[in-house]
Amino acid sequence: MLIEHDPYHCYMPYPPVPVENAPDGPLAGLTLGVKDIYDVAGYRTGCGCPIRLAMSDIKTATAPAIQALLDAGAAFNGKLHTDELAWSMYGMNAHFGMPVNPNAPGRIPGGSSSGSGAACAGGLADITVGSDTGGSVRAPASFCGTWGIRPTHGLISLDGVMPLAPSYDTCGLFARDGATLLRALSVLLSDSAPLPDAPRLLKSPEMFDHLGADQRAATEAAFDGVTARDVALYPDGMDAAYATFLASMGGDAQKHIVPFIRDSNMPLVRGIDGRAAAAEALSAGDIARAEAQRTAFAAHVDAALGGDGVVLAPVVHDVAFAPDAPLEIFDNFRHISQRMLCVAGLAGLPQVTWPAGMLNGAPWGVSLIGPRGSDLSLVRLAMTLQKDTA
């Protein structure tokens, strides 16, 4: 790694290889950390997996998304920890350890973009690149108290990036403030469908009802003074949407990551073993039904938002928990939180997250979900809605 001091155990300890960046540009003066599922010339790509690392050659080309940030002047300072094969949301890697959550020491940083969230929150890099398939930027951003975005699916190249479930995978970003996030995101995409000056503000009663009393109060306080109309985002209920997400993402993973797991005979830690088995067990009929349900869900959400609707939403249902929490916390948290996280994934929409203060001793984030292609104007809107939470 190129960074001299890593107090939060965010960076992979690779031999330091300088990476050339442009001397000037819109990101000049900003440092850049990159999740270790992206190829960077001069480095291996380990994907949080010892076998994947052992099989990796030293890359001779950099993933286009990362190269664009370098060409804009950002200075690379190292590759960042990820959950194994980017297939978890807690940040606990049995092989390489867990990054420290700088704003909530003693609690998980979230994953799979664990190093990206922690390095950004701890001030070790100004911009960090993660990936978001089922929540792997949004959850760590909320847990660590940073800004983050899952962009509109398909707008940012994923060439040179490990696939998990490509119809869900996105290149996401973290920053400590909205202005920096906007600068970096503007390098990678343009507003193909900008929001109007006065978008319709919406909220999902199902999401708010999914929160505990403290969590709901914190979310409502973050949006205090903002008038939003109720919108039904879940035509068949939250459980049905989550089931559709599990089966459609599992079908994608069955094709793109499960073969590596089985062919390499890699040892499986708790969590990923069950997810791999569940994905492998899906039949072609299961996957086809889920894809049809996903298409219908996306059409419903697109119609509800139109080109001017923005949903004010919590990110997850609770703050980060301790790594020694009971197993039922680990087993249940993902299933509960992804009933909210799955909306943007199923519909392929952008979702921007920002800090909304502290709740029970840990950061709490809120978010906006916008129409596809509204990414930049969605960040600008979030900047106008953000309250002083220092």
From TrEMBL:
Residues 21-202 form the Amidase domain. PANTHER family: AMIDASE 1 (PTHR46310). InterPro entries: Amidase_dom, AS_sf. This is Amidase. It holds the Pfam family Amidase. It comes from the Bacteria.
